[in-house]
Amino acid sequence: MAAEPARAPSRPAAQNQDHILAERRRREKLSERFIALSKIVPGLKKMDKASVLGDAIKYVKTLQEQDDGSSCDENFEGADAGLPEIEARMSDRTVLVKIHCENRRGVLVAALSELESIDLAIMNTNVLPFTASSIDITIMATAGEDFSLSVKDIVRKLHQAFKSSP
């Protein structure tokens, strides 16, 4: 006699119905998210899920490339330990500069003087102690009419200003 293979016990009808409803809710939620995504991504030509997802990926990549072009976080390797970490971002005519450096006399004045010398009008400045010997400086500025530097140039100029300050 050949033995019959053992079958897994089937689910009760109520449990099966719950599973069907849960799966339906999951698919509806996924569809709602695709609809929301399609509303955010500009220039969609097709509305099927594969096209929406593909175009969303392309759109995010273009945003990342734009962001890479409009910000700079440059720390020169091999430089003095006292040299600050400087990050600059630019959006339209507004420039945001973040500096993490040693807490020493004249640091803020050197940064503000350098920014004003390159045709940036200071709108707001915030200085916070980070440790006993370091500070974080955040500066918001507006570019003047003759301003033509890139964010990398701003960072380099600030590094030079900090090197030359006592």
Automatic annotation (TrEMBL):
SUPFAM superfamilies: HLH, helix-loop-helix DNA-binding domain (SSF47459)
Keywords recorded for this protein, A-Z: Nucleus, Transcription, Transcription regulation
Span list, region Disordered: 1-21
Subcellular location: Nucleus
Signal peptide: none
GO cellular component annotations of the record: nucleus
GO MF entries: protein dimerization activity
Annotated transmembrane regions: none
Biased composition (Low complexity): 1-14
All residue ranges annotated as the BHLH domain in the record: 14-63
Transferase listed as a keyword: no
Similarity annotation: Belongs to the bHLH protein family.
Name listed for the protein in its UniProt record: BHLH domain-containing protein
Higher taxonomy: Eukaryota, Viridiplantae, Streptophyta, Embryophyta, Tracheophyta
